[in-house]
Amino acid sequence: MEHSDSAKIALKWLDGNGDYEEITYGELHKQANQLANGLKGLGLRKGDRVLVMVPRRIITYVIYLACLKTGLAIIPSSEMLRAKDLAYRLRHSEARAVIVWSDATQEVDKIGEDIPSLAYRIVVSAEKAEIKANWIGIHDMMESQSDTFTTVDTHRDDMAILAYTSGTTGNPKGVVHTHGWGYAHLRIAATLWLDIQESDTVWATAAPGWQKWIWSPFLSVLGSGATGFVYNGSFQPNRYLELIQSYGIKVLCCTPTEYRLMAKTSGLKQYDLSNLRSAVSAGEPLNEEVIKEFQRHFNLTIRDGYGQTESTLLIGTLKDAPSRIGSMGRSIADGLVEIIDESGTPLAPGQVGDIAVHSDMPALFQNYYHDPERKLASTRGNYFVTGDRARKDAEGYFWFEGRGDDIIISSGYTIGPFEVEEALMKHHAVKECAVVASPDEIRGHVVKAFIVLQEEIAGSPAMVKELQNYVKEWTAPYKYPRKIEFIKDLPKTNSGKIRRIELRQQEQKASQVSGENKIID
Q: Domain spanning 24-154: which CATH class is it, in words?
């Protein structure tokens, strides 16, 4: 990601208070080299896993570059993760180090169990500050280090990213992406979909800790030699529109939820977005009326894209391609993505089946860490099955039908029901529970929990709040159930398994009839 013009601005950073910073490509790489020397000096070596939990800051880019230069495998982690989430990732990955923002050190320190592999705790702050015992300050590590570094030789099959993604049962899965994946992703997403040109200022709103941040704000922007705009502030529709206008954003990548709320902003026509050349959306299907609203006011078509943690962009409305509003778009290459049946055979146009990607795709993940059999279990014939269902029309456009499993996608966040259920079951009032996706106009879906309470406890709005806050304490707050319904019994199969599909169908029908639920946050 070196740039021929070291003086070119690589990143423009702004926070919610109006504080502004920027950094050139030359300075970015100097700082990354200093940190790489510091990491190497600690004793970290090629192949070691490092958990990184840092917000939208310029130093985040420095950290990722330094780790890749040193051959370390990065475990991207959201700031919203709690001690329990972190303990699992650290233990499962056998991570040797954590690099976390100062506000998050307390969650690491809360981990009660021993993590034998964890040798180094590195804290990041806006400026030099007093460091707690057992922690190393990142500024101290970089100080007095050389700003030149010989990048460690890595093979295309060496691990670069270990991303954890929620599963329907059990703990999150560790998805292994190699250095070769990064190059494949650049050729696909940055060029064909985002359409980033070197002269562009690009705003991709994904937060560090998610695979989508690596996709767009990191790899696609820096790998294209463009200038990235980074906003470390809360989402406010009017503020986003103002920033797109004032910073001359040319390429925009937002979640459907962000686009939905911007489209509902009063006085939308007052904003001048004429610099905006390319706007894309990913994470879940984008509503047709939102796309039309942007077309009407800005003569701009938001182009949908579909991918998953295990791959990169698979389906989308690519640059210069005819748009079919409401569709997912087409496969990024003929034959790469198909709709298949249970035997792994591609289906005829119009038939609903599983979205599957050909196993030879260069940007498909290598395996699930410590669980290679899981990838094989999701493979049918020559295809890896994504877990989503769709149909393809005669012209090759894909039309989304829904999840093939119980995974919940809310505002672009992927949430496994097991993680929420596990937290709820720790509460003394909960006897049984089941968590499903519930349709939501703004977020696409939200987490809904059906709860059977202990006999002596009654459901109430106060109990709803108590359970929601309890979940936020146990796991990442974005996973908490925004809707809770208390019921007497959960629907089950003869063998005693909860029939979540029945609950999902119930929610779908309820949303179509009235959109009302019994107890809603």
A: alpha beta
Cβ atoms of 357 and 383 closer than 8 Å? yes
φ/ψ of 145, rounded to 5, equals: -85, 150
pLDDT of residue 253: 96
Answer whether 482's CB lies under 8 Å from 449's CB.
Answer: no
Task: List Cα–Cα distances, 230 to 172, 188, 263, in angstroms.
Answer: 28, 23, 22
The model scores a pTM over 0.90: no
517/513 Cα distance (integer angstroms):
11
Spell out the residues 6+ positions from residue 90 whose beta carbon is closer than 8 angstroms to its own.
51, 98, 111, 115, 117, 118
Domain with CATH 3.40.50.980 in the chain: 24-154
pLDDT > 70? residue 6: yes
Name the β-bridge partners of 227: 201
pLDDT exceeds 50 at position 476: yes
User: Average of pLDDT values for 464-469?
Assistant: 97
3-state secondary structure labels for all residues of 434-466 = EEEEEEECCCEEEEEEEEEECCCCCCCHHHHHH
Rounded to whole angstroms, how far apart are CA atoms 27 and 62?
Answer: 10
Closest CA to 64 of 102, 35, 107, 105: 35
The sign of the CA dihedral 250, 255, 257, 258 is negative
Q: Which CATH class is domain 408-513?
A: alpha beta
Residue 27: pLDDT over 80: yes
